[in-house]
Amino acid sequence: MADWNALTITSSPQDVFIAVMGLTGVGKSTFVTLCTQKEIQIGHKLESCTSSVSIFSFRHKSKTVHLIDTPGFNDTTRSESEVLQEVAYWLSTAYGKADAKLEDRFRLNGIVYLHSIADVRWSGSTRRSLNMLRTICGPENYDAIVLTTTFWDQVDRETGKVREAQLIGDMNKWGQLVHTSPKSSVRRHDQGYKTAINIIDGIIDRGVKYELLIQKELAKPGATLHDTTAGREAQLLWEKDIERFQQELGYAKEAMKESQQQSDGTLVTEMARLKSSINQGRAALSELYLPKKELENRWVSRNTRDVELLQQQIVKCQKTIEDLFKRSASTLSPSSNGTPPPAYSRRTSDESTASSANSLLEQERRWKKDLMAQKMAKLAARSMHINVASALFGGVSAGVAILPLLPYLAACCVM
Ligand SMILES: Nc1nc2c(ncn2[C@@H]2O[C@H](COP(=O)(O)OP(=O)(O)OP(=O)(O)O)[C@@H](O)[C@H]2O)c(=O)[nH]1
Ligand SMILES: [Mg+2]
After folding, report:
1. Relative to the alpha carbon of 26, which ligand is closest?
2. Residue in 29, 40, 69 to alter for ligand 1 test, most ligand atoms within 8 A of Cβ
3. Which residues of 299-322 are buried (b: 16+ CB within 10 A; e: fewer)?
4. 144 and 189 in a common domain
């Protein structure tokens, strides 16, 4: 069991916290990687990418900036309900109870919401994700949001500009965030450090800390997700989903009757899928009433499992590194028993074996560094949650926020 207290440091109240949100694959982890300037390649090699909240920290303009990488609401490995629970629980625990002092509370300096300009369609997932963002944030905090487009290299400039204008102009899209007061800002990010850090600078220079709507709503005693605007928005979505699935199930049953083939394979599979979706929807609705303690149990066990999984991968990676190291070292090392060096042709092929082993070795080292950074980021998320709770309830002096892990993240970089 990790000693969480050993993984903490005291940070200054001037620290900057920025959440990075958006659908799966829009480039959240890439953005975080660029800003932190660490050689981690999140999203390239891990199948499930970012499946839970992680914190990556870096120094910039004499400040410590903490980027909170979040899972997308259309995560392929987790349901919308699980992602909502994760994000809401983490934000609300860090925020603290209703009677906590403002200076003790965890408040964000901003939210970078990424959107791929290469997306041609305004899909259901895109709409749902934006609705979640709006309701988690609350209209009074829309200026906390920086709507940021990515994937500019995948569209020609003019097409991109037209799409961006459509997003801004349409009140069912970004219009509702940018034509109100306070309003969100719109930025472009081209996968370069400069555009990424400009966005961070804009947030730092604003110097405002926001209390999100969902944080205030969940701080009330006994509040559940159902008592939040985001929870009720999700409820409406899931009720509509269930209704649609039931209707489709009805059609499938009719079709089955008409086909007079009780074992029509396609229809049977389709009906099973619809029934399972209906059950999932019902489960999601009932989970809106889960007490915070249960959300906490789920969050902690998921975080622990993620960390353990990453640790296993690190051990495996280390073993591969050792094997590769032995292989590349033995290939070119002079023979210890005094036999003559190998013939030229043999030597060339050995050199090429050694060079490919070296390149694999390099890849594995990078992969290990990536895994370690991810593990530390998950520990940081957990450490933060535990220590904010203990700062609030365990008598740590007001104004001192206890924050995690910079020495450990730094240690990752020198691996
Ligand atoms: N062409 C192009 N590829 C990008 C851009 N931004 C990110 N990518 C790639 O898109 C893939 C997904 O990027 P991630 O940063 O993992 O996306 P994510 O939003 O963190 O995804 P999840 O963790 O699954 O939510 C990676 O292979 C990135 O290299 C971009 O602007 N242009
Ligand atoms: Mg990610």
Report:
1. 1
2. 29
3. beebbeebbebbeebbeebeebbe
4. yes
Q: Is the CB of 150 under 6 A from ligand 1?
A: yes
The verdict on 207 and 234 lying in the same domain is: no
Amino acid at 236: L
| pLDDT at site 344 | 46
What are the pLDDT digits (tens) for 85-125? Answer: 989 988 888 777 667 777 777 789 999 999 999 998 888 99
**Which residue among 21, 26, 30 is best mutated to probe the pocket of ligand 1, counting the most ligand atoms within 8 A of its Cβ?**
30
Residue 22 shares a structural domain with residue 132: yes
Whether 337 maps to a domain, the answer reads no
Measured in Å, residue 309 CA sits from the centre of ligand 1 at 22
pLDDT in tens, 293-327: 898 888 888 888 888 998 999 999 899 888 888 87
Number of domains comprising the chain: 2
Q: Tell me the whole-structure pTM to 2 decimals.
A: 0.82
Query: What are the distances in angstroms from CA 242 to CA 116, 249, 270?
Result: 29, 10, 15
Nearest ligand 1 atom, CA 22: 19
- With residue 56 as reference, give the H or E element that holds it: strand 54-60
Segments forming the whole domain that contains residue 243 = 225-287
